[in-house]
Design brief:
By secondary structure, the chain is α+β, with helices and mostly antiparallel strands. It has one domain. Helix content is 17%, strand content 46%. The protein contains three helices and twelve strands, in the order αβααβββββββββββ. A seven-stranded antiparallel sheet has the order 1-12-2-5-6-7-8. Strands 4-3-11-10-9 form a five-stranded antiparallel sheet, with no helix packed on it. Strand 10 and strand 11 form a beta hairpin.
Length: 179
C-alpha cells in the first residue's frame, strides 16, 4: 500500500512538472521575433529589472543678500536619488523606436526608463541620452535631468515565459482471447 502511494506521488510530481514551467528570460530582439511580439503584446507583458539602477540629481542655489551692512551668502544644496532595485516589476509605456522601449517602474507613465538593444539579437539594456567617460549616463526622468551610477549601465529587463506541455495517455489491460 505504501509503495503504491509513493508511486502515485512520483507520477503526480512528474505530471505537474510537465504541465507548466515558468522561467525569466532576458528580453531581446530575438525573443521579440521568436514569439511574434508587437506593440500591443508589449502592453501585456510584465517586465522585471535585472541589476540595480540608481539615478541622482543635485542642485545648488547661491543667494547673496545685504543684511545690516554685511554680505550674507546663502548656499543651499539638494540631492534627489531614485533607486530601482533588481527584481522591480515594470510596465510598458511606449515604443520609442524599433529597438527601444520605455518601461515605468513607478506610479505613472510619466516616470519611465528607456531600454534598448544595440544589436539584432541584443539584450534590452538600460539606456541614457549620453554616457560620460566614467560610465555614468545622463538622462531625463519625469522631465528632470538625472545622472545614473556606473553600475546602472549593466541593468536589463526580463520577461517570464511559461511553457506548457500536454500529455495524453491511455492505458488498458488486454483480457486475452479464448477458443
Amino acid at each position: 500500500m505504501m509503495k503504491n502511494l509513493k508511486n502515485v506521488a512520483l507520477v503526480a510530481i512528474l505530471i505537474f512538472g510537465l504541465v507548466g514551467c515558468k522561467q525569466q528570460i532576458p528580453y531581446t530582439n530575438e525573443v521579440k521575433t521568436q514569439y511574434g511580439i508587437d506593440t500591443e503584446n508589449l502592453r501585456s507583458l510584465q517586465y522585471h529589472l535585472v541589476g540595480d539602477i540608481v539615478l541622482t540629481k543635485s542642485s545648488s542655489i547661491n543667494n547673496n543678500q545685504l543684511d545690516k551692512g554685511e554680505i550674507l551668502v546663502n548656499e543651499s544644496q539638494s540631492m534627489d536619488k531614485v533607486i530601482f532595485r533588481a527584481g522591480t516589476q515594470g510596465l510598458f509605456v511606449k515604443e520609442i523606436d524599433e529597438n527601444r522601449i520605455a518601461i515605468s517602474f513607478e506610479k505613472s507613465d510619466d516616470y519611465y526608463l528607456e531600454f534598448g538593444a544595440t544589436s539584432i539579437r541584443g539584450l534590452y539594456k538600460f539606456q541614457a541620452a549620453s554616457w560620460d567617460n566614467s560610465g555614468r549616463g545622463k538622462l531625463m526622468y519625469n522631465g528632470e535631468q538625472f545622472v545614473s551610477s556606473r553600475a546602472s549601465a549593466d541593468a536589463y529587463i526580463t520577461v517570464k515565459v511559461r511553457k506548457s506541455s500536454q500529455l495524453n495517455s491511455s492505458q488498458r489491460i488486454a483480457k486475452g482471447r479464448k477458443v
